[in-house]
Amino acid sequence: MNHPPSGFAAPPSAARGWRTQRPGRASSAGALAWRFLRSPSSLASLSDALLPWLLPAALLALWFTGADQGWISPQVLPPPQFVWETLRDLAPSGELWLNVSASLQRVVVGFAIGALLGLALGAAMGLSRTVEAYLLPSFNALVQIPVLGWLPFVLLLVGIGEPLKYILIAKAALVPVALNTLQGFRQTPVALREVGRVYGFTPRQQVLDIVLPHALPTLFTGLRLGFTKAWLSLVVVELVASSEGLGYLIVYGRQLFQLDLVMAAVIVVGAIGYAIDRGLDRFERWARRSQPGVAV
Known about the structure:
The protein is mainly alpha-helical. It has a single domain, classed as MetI-like fold (Orthogonal Bundle), CATH 1.10.3720.10. Helix 6 packs across helix 12, helix 10 crosses helix 11 and helix 11 runs antiparallel to helix 13.
C-alpha cells in the first residue's frame, strides 16, 4: 500500500468537508429550535411561563422611566438604582438578615400554632354536627374582628413582647385554616362513608383513608391562605410594636424619610412571601401525589 509522502497536503475538498461538520450541527440545533418554536404546545407553555411576569416587567419599566424623566420627586419615589444600592448595603452589614430572621421566626411560630389549632378545630366541626352547632356561630362572630382590633386587648394581657406577635399571627392563620378544614371534611361523599362502614372501617380508618384524601386540596388551600394572612399580620404587628423585623425596618425608614429603605424592605417582604407561597404549592403537589387515588 502506497502512503503519501510527508508534507503531502490534504485535498481542499477534504478540509472543507471536515470544517463543515460543525456548521451542520449548528444548523440541526437551529432546526430543533425552530421546530420547538413552531410547536403549538411549546408556544403555549412558553407563553404560560412568561405571562405572569408581564405586569411586573411593565411596572418596573414604568418605574425606571418615571424616575429617569423626573415625573415623581426622588424624595417621594426613589429611583430603582437607589433601592438596589440600599439592598446591597444592607446585605453585607448583616442588618437585613437580622431583621429577616426575626420576622421569619415570628411568622413560623405563629403560623404553626394557628395552623395546628385551625386544623384541630376545623376537623372537630367537620366530623361532628354537634360540635359545629356549638362552636361555628361564635367562631363566625369572632373572626369578623380584624387583627388590629384584638391588639389593645392582647396588649393588656401579655404586654408588648414576642407573645403578643405570636398570638395575633396565630389568630390570623387560624381562621382560614379552620374554615377550609371544615369545608374539606364536609365535602366527602356520603356514599363513600357508607362503603367504609360496610367494610368495617374504624372511625380512624374512615378519617385517614376516606375523608382526608378528599379533603386534601381544600386543606392545602386553607394552609396557603393561612400563611398569607399570617405574613400580612406579621408586617402589621411589626409596624405597631416591634424593635426589629421587616415591619420595623419599614417604620424606621419612614421616620428617617429614607424611602429607598422603605422600598427595599417592601421588596424583601414581597419576595419572601412569594417564595414561601411557591414552596407551599410544591409541597401541596407532592403530598397530593403521595395520596393514592387523588388526582393532581
